[in-house]
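Predict structure. Chain length: 90.
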Amino acid sequence: WQTGLTDCCTDCGVCCCGMFCYPCLGCQVAGDMGECCLCGTGMAMRTLYRTRYNIPGSLCSDFCVTLWCPVCSVCQIKRDINRRRKMNIF
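Prediction complete.
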């Protein structure tokens, strides 16, 4: 990951969107990834994104992060997408 799980200060807009409208941010991430926006797909999206970009981790870590801190998880993915877009690798 290009930012840590709790690095919300690196992109306050994403953080605020996640805190105040988590479903909206989840749908943005799903749309960015070309996936369907359904409830309960956080772990699947995180795992797909992580494997697509060869980010170290495991299914167990994806499960734990999306279970205990879903907002931080989606914010981290969105920050990563934004950074990869700036580098033209998304």
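Summary: The chain has a mean pLDDT of 93.
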